[in-house]
Amino acid sequence: MTPFSRRAFVTAAAAGLLVGCGGHPAGRGATARSGSTPPASPPVAKPAHPRGRSVPVRLRIPAIGVDTPVMRLGLAPDGSVQVPPIAAHDRAGWYRHSPTPGQTGPSVILGHVTVGAYGDGVFRHLARLRRGDRIVVRLENGGSAEFTVGAVRTVAKADFPADAVYGDVDRPELRLITCGGARYGGGYLDNVIVFAALSSASP
């Protein structure tokens, strides 16, 4: 990870990640906020060799029915990570200052849990993922990178674990992030974070 990317990661975390998360439609319930969260469990995947840089274009998570295009995201004017626009055809977004999926380091993909009046967001069921579930990222060069979930955590936004999410790692990993927990106003109190490791890659 470049020094600029590392600084951008930390700045984004300090500014508050996914503060709005697309709001929450009236009348829909929110999951209960979790208590203290243990450290992320080591991923169950047998490590795969890193691959070259190629931008993600599509994300599939079979266990929760996700099959979405992936857009590119940068930094908002306040220094926080951009989030995908609130739209009827919601999609996930890759933070372009993170490694591409399959490169060494933590690649970060964001998505909404809800999208205002449009209802459920692309990551509405992210918290249902379990250790061992598969995540497949299709890449711009025609190849793909497959990851295996190692841990799913729900954490208070005020206690966002920046080092665990953005810190340097010596192998290709993936972070999926959305909002979760109790609702307040138009947002949520917590973040749901999925930690996964590369298990295989195709050219």
Describe what this molecule looks like in 3D.
By secondary structure, the chain is mainly beta. The protein has a single domain, classed as Sortase, Chain: A, CATH 2.40.260. It has helices at residues 3-15, 162-166; strands spanning 56-61, 66-73, 92-95, 105-110, 134-139, 144-156, 172-184, 187-202.
Total domain units: 1
- Kindly state the percentage of residues in helix: under 10%
Q: Helix and strand string, N-terminal first?
A: HEEEEEEHEE
Mean pLDDT: 82
What is the CATH C-level name?
A: Mainly Beta
Strand content: 35-45%
The low-confidence parts are 1-5, 13-20, 23-40
Please work out how many helical segments DSSP would assign: 2
Shape annotation: globular
Give the radius of gyration.
15 Å
CATH architecture classification name: Beta Barrel
What's the N-to-C terminus distance?
22 Å
* Class derived from helix and strand content: mainly beta
**Order of adjacent strands in the largest pleated sheet:** 1-2-3-4-7-8-6-5
**Any idea what the CATH superfamily is called?**
Sortase
- The number of E-state strands comes to 8
CATH topology call: Sortase, Chain: A
